[in-house]
Give the backbone structure.
Amino acid sequence: MPNAPLCGPEFGSNAARGASATPVTLPPPIIFTKFGPERAAQVSPSSEMLASSDDLGWRSIVVRAYSLPDERDGFTTGPIPDLLVSLNIGGVFTVESRRLGGWTRARPPPASIGIKAPGRYETLRWHSDSCTPMKLLHMFVSADMLHETAAGLGRPGLSSRVPDALHVEDPLLAVIGRALLSAVVRRAEPLHADSLAQSLALHMVYGRSLASEAPRPWQMPGALSSVALERVEDYMHSNLGMPLLLEDLAAVASISKFHFVRGFKLATGEPPHRHLTRLRMQLAAKLLRTSRDTVQQISAACGYASAGQFANAFRRHHGASPTQYRREAGH
């Protein structure tokens, strides 16, 4: 095989497998029925999970970062009903995929994308081509979000036309993937994840599904009306201590999630999650200046699951920790 590994024996060779290696028994396909961490299939039994959104309460997307073994032969993935987008976040490797026909080979560089459409399964094998550890970011996007996004575009059939791709260059998907990985590391709230997932779904349905078609006119949704925006603002202010989801805010505005994200940004100049964070940081600063509540109590009042998560967000917004801010305010 060309592109032999720089740090070990060639993929598939006797030296790599061992002269007396036993045949590989493929595991059965993995099928999940409920969207969430339990439905995102494990990459490989020997993969190490580096970061995950599993415990963050995200409902429209599951994100996991893995460190992969240098070589894997004959691993079959299950036909999950949701979209899987993979981002290479480390290493250079050769990967081969077998679906209906023979093997297809690719050598995805860092920041490249792989796409597995809903309902598909495949057999994979790979080997490392460098000394850099192999790392992948997996983003599982809810099939319901794909359907809703396609319906919002007036093209409900598009959600079933998301293409498979072992390797594509898509800078926008790479940027969204990096943002989602950062959101996992920062333990971002569900509203932030929902907004990023909506952007990913829109690009997959509109950008990639229509890539081979001639463009057709499409009317972008406009800004939220003043009445709808006032309802959403009131709802946010009344629930700053609660975990808010994109679908909740869209329901208050009486429009779909797809139209809500763009309409809200056009009306306010910022996406919903950033606007909500700003409101929460305003409340936090007021409570630190005027109340005797502990930082832990203020954290909960502002909708944060932990004081550490709250302190990080407060420092990014105000340039000081909650304790330092309170001390400098003379309270």
